[in-house]
Structure prediction request, 695 residues.
Amino acid sequence: MEAGPLSIRETILEKIDTGYSYQLAKRMETYKSNQVLGYRTAGSEAEYKTGEMLRKEMVRIGLSQVEKDRVTVDGWEFKKAVLTFVSKDGMEKQVQLGAYQTTLVTDGQEECSLMYLGKGTEQDYEGKDVSGKLVLVDINQRDEWWINYPVYQAHLKGAKALIAVQCGGYGEIGDEALNAQDIAGPEDAPAFSISRKDAAELKALLEEQEEIRVRLDADTRVTRNCTTYNVRGCIPGRHPDRIVLLSAHYDSYFSGFQDDNTAVSMMLGIAKALIDSGFQPNNTIMFCAMAAEEWGVADSWFDWSAGAYEQVFTAHPEWAGKVIADLNFELPALAHGTRARIRSCYEYTRFLEEFLSGLPDLTHAYPEEAQVVAPIETWSDDFSMAIAGIPSMVNDFTGGSFMETHYHSQFDNDDYYDEKVYKLHHEMFALLIEALDRTAVVPLSFGPVMHRAAEMAEEGIRLTASREGKTAPEKGLGGAETEEAQGLEAALRNLKEQLLLAREREEQAYLRLKEQNSRYDRLLSEGRCEEAEELFSSLRELEADCLRKFKAEQDAFVRIDWYGNVLYPHELLIQKLSLLTGAAMDLKEGRLSQALKKLYQVDNNAYAFMFGPEVYRHFTDYVLRQPKERLKWGYGRLMEHADLYELVRSLLKKQEKGEKEYREEAVYLEKVCGEERKQALCAVEELCRTVKKSF
Prediction:
């Protein structure tokens, strides 16, 4: 007997060619700003050339309507940074430095002094004159603080530039590793990175003398308001204004093989497989290579994902309401843990779990089954998409050791390439596109959002409630039977009730929506296309309402803390209030070290412990007092700030002197707590209004 015809899903899987994707990822390495280290950065010539190559490739594989969308970002061109010094054996040595997004152009090899200042905190500068000199410091950005803090501290002290060596957190693959991250600081405070191996030679010289003479040859330039391009093409569908979007970024540090060449090339590999299979979509399938993800705006905490933000907020704001899902890709060619994970906005978790449960056998790349996790995080372009009103997801990429070892270093290359993982991601997301294409209405469930928000309200009630007979430490966020505490508890109880009612309504709504999609799918499978189109047309207003609700939910429920973690507004405020009230109680009872540990976790007050007031104020004010165009996706996402700088410094002085009286500081903290309770009450009441109005 002859085998029957392949289904479209089987044909798509058959046409997947990871060899094509791998070779395209390698081709992207051709374009570089720094001929030794690589770098294909925001607004650079290398980024432009890469975009042009990708545009031509989109045309070559058969995508339609291939276009480049012009967006404005701050640009960075890093051509070189070479440090020359005489080693202990008397030999002249030249070493390559990595760079951060700052400006420093020397007149050839400029001679200057170099000093080692530990971790570059304010205390490390006591009795030191670094004016016009290079400052070498150790840094662990994962466990301590971001690069912008010691860099700006050095700048304020008059240093020519700071050179950072990773002492942990990133670049742990070997002592020769350089590292690069977004700077999140002003471009006129120059910064470079050096390997532990090369730094060790400099430190050995500096053991015998406070400073040494070196030569620096550097060309790194930031130019504000540059033009770059997001490149897109599509497979047209029967419904041109209903879009399934795929995205990945094509800027990179070093060669960027994993981050993010393989993601861009997988996106186009999936496009090629869909085209070669003869897939005729019901909706437009859009493929967009995004520029300026690693960095794209100077002197802003929210300086990454600039290209994606500009794409959906400036170039194509009309995509919100048309795009039913963004499938974003990051580092898909290596294993991140023991299972593949799709990190999704809460609203897509139900559909994705159902999708994964119905998958055929795919490439076996992990010991455990694929999983859905939520919510999406700020570390990739899908966050900018979501807050614009486009439901988004990404292959989860933050697990495993790669982020601590190879990530953002010159060791991000194909040595870590895992072909089976890569193929599985091709297969899984290609089939997800096909599944989304067979929906008549965007398959969003708002129940999981309400459920999680209700859990956070319950936690707030537990922490806020004050009851007679409890000892002081047990009295939670109230600290006493105050009117403010009682009002906050009552508001949280009301919020929880509203959220649970909304959850029930939304769970039922999703079941009705699911039935409509199942009916549509059956009609398509049975070839009853005219009836399928009638059903599709009847559901347009329902879909528009779902997408409006999604945007309203993003506006009301999505906030971030000072470290970029995604939280609910009431969740963030309750956590903060718990720390503040706990610290106040600790001070009253003489537990200074415990109080300081809690204050260290409040907003960005950790930096009050190590850096001067100018540094602390700059990186507080530039978040709270910059215009929307400088804050991008972070605008309005942070809650009000608790400025504890003077309080922390006062307590640190008392700790140093061995003083035991903290009554004045405790009274001040109680006032702060009162203001925080008022803010929390307002936020909770606003959430209640949103839930009642929209859900």
